[in-house]
Amino acid sequence: MANPYPKEGSNVPAERNAARRPARSGPRPQHHRDTRQAILRGFTNRCPKCGKGHMMRGYLQIVDRCENCGEPLGSYPAADGPAFFTITNIMLLLIPMIAATWVWFRLSPFVMLVVLSALTSVMTLILLRYVKGAFVGYLWAKDEQDPGA
Ligand SMILES: [Zn+2]
């Protein structure tokens, strides 16, 4: 029986196979990038490479290039990752917050809904910026560039 999942390129003409891959000229350059340092620098809105330039302009906009060292920070696609991590962590905090407000304050369910919604929204918006910086720092450390950029 024929293998329904042949290895890439086995029966595929070379030009079709090449079209599927993102264009990269030559082998990937080898980088030694300190992941922990890159995440910490990103967390504090600094360029993961030099630690001096700003990573973000405005609230969440990643700059195209570092103002200090010229590193192309705009080509590291964070996409939905930061929002996912932020929401997941805030939701994990929400469970003990619901329990605590219920036990300590005995608020009516409607007041709890309003108060906790406002509180988690503010916490999410504050945390998102830090998480996005750390996320782009991680992508930079792993050299996960957007192939389309
Ligand atoms: Zn830099």
From TrEMBL:
Entry-linked Pfam families: DUF983
Ranges annotated as biased composition (Basic residues): 19-34
Transport listed as a keyword: no
Transmembrane segments: 83-104, 110-131
Positions of the UniProt region annotated as Disordered: 1-35
Keywords from the UniProt entry: Membrane, Transmembrane, Transmembrane helix
Transmembrane helix found in the keyword field: yes
Protein name listed in UniProt: DUF983 domain-containing protein
